[in-house]
């Protein structure tokens, strides 16, 4: 192992923060790390909205599903897929393709992970907020996002006020396939992981719940997931073809 791998493997989502601000030099380093991420075809199809106004933070906390740490964190960054910038350079740009949505989302995820790793290296912590997609139109209006820009997710950053237990990941043999996809799921190995996750949820110091991983998947995928999203994307000039 080395310090970089140790840092990656130590990841925990932090949802409780002290009132201490992030130093400007630290934020500058975090944003520089974000921009250093790879970009497909070097389109750089992502923008970051830094939200500081308390009123806007409170609204975003509500729009994200009443997640109070959105308002409490020292910094809140919203990562957006952005082709508005490109269309100002090339007004007749051929946008709206599903592939371009994937590029913007992947670029945004790579930037955000760089940002979070940089923050963790500075003894800071954070948590991703996918909940801003609960109300994407309202978030877009609040942030003044033009056509061809959509919010992907938020990122809370700050000084940790908690040290949560690390959540166990799936056994690697269920994730990493050799040469080709292994269609048959190892149910015995999955059952062991379900038992491990059930124990984790039961004993962790934060919110306890009686559930295993398979149950969580069943609960999430057993219902519609933001069925309004396709209409929102198309209204914003994405995923038209």
UniProtKB/TrEMBL annotation:
<protein>
    <submittedName>
        <fullName>Oxygen-insensitive NADPH nitroreductase</fullName>
    </submittedName>
</protein>
<keyword id="KW-0521">NADP</keyword>
<comment type="similarity">
    <text>Belongs to the flavin oxidoreductase frp family.</text>
</comment>
<dbReference type="Pfam" id="PF00881">
    <property type="entry name" value="Nitroreductase"/>
</dbReference>
<feature type="domain" description="Nitroreductase">
    <location>
        <begin position="8"/>
        <end position="158"/>
    </location>
</feature>
<dbReference type="InterPro" id="IPR016446">
    <property type="entry name" value="Flavin_OxRdtase_Frp"/>
</dbReference>
<keyword id="KW-0285">Flavoprotein</keyword>
<keyword id="KW-0288">FMN</keyword>
<dbReference type="GO" id="GO:0016491">
    <property type="term" value="F:oxidoreductase activity"/>
</dbReference>
<keyword id="KW-0560">Oxidoreductase</keyword>
<dbReference type="InterPro" id="IPR029479">
    <property type="entry name" value="Nitroreductase"/>
</dbReference>
<dbReference type="InterPro" id="IPR000415">
    <property type="entry name" value="Nitroreductase-like"/>
</dbReference>
């Amino acid at each position: 192992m080395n310090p970089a791998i140790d840092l990656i493997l130590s990841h925990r989502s932090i949802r409780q923060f002290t009132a201490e601000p992030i130093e400007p030099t630290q934020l500058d380093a975090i944003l520089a790390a974000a921009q250093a991420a790879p970009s497909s075809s070097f389109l750089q199809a992502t923008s970051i909205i830094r939200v500081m106004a308390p009123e806007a933070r409170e609204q975003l906390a509500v729009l994200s599903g009443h997640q109070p740490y959105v308002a409490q964190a020292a910094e809140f960054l919203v990562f957006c897929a952005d082709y508005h910038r490109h269309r100002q350079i090339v007004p007749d740009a051929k946008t709206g393709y599903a592939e371009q949505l994937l590029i913007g989302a992947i670029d945004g995820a790579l930037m955000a992970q760089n940002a979070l790793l940089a923050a963790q290296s500075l003894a800071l912590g954070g948590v991703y907020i996918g909940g801003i997609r609960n109300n994407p139109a309202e978030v877009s209006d609040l942030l003044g996002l033009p056509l061809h820009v959509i919010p992907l997710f938020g990122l809370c950053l700050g000084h940790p006020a908690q040290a949560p237990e690390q959540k166990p990941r799936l056994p690697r043999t269920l994730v990493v396939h050799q040469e080709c996809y292994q269609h048959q799921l190892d149910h015995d190995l999955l059952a062991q992981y379900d038992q491990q996750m059930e124990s984790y949820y039961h004993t962790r110091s934060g919110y306890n719940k009686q559930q295993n991983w398979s149950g969580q998947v069943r609960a999430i995928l057993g219902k519609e997931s933001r069925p309004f999203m396709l209409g929102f994307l198309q209204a914003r000039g994405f995923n038209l073809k």
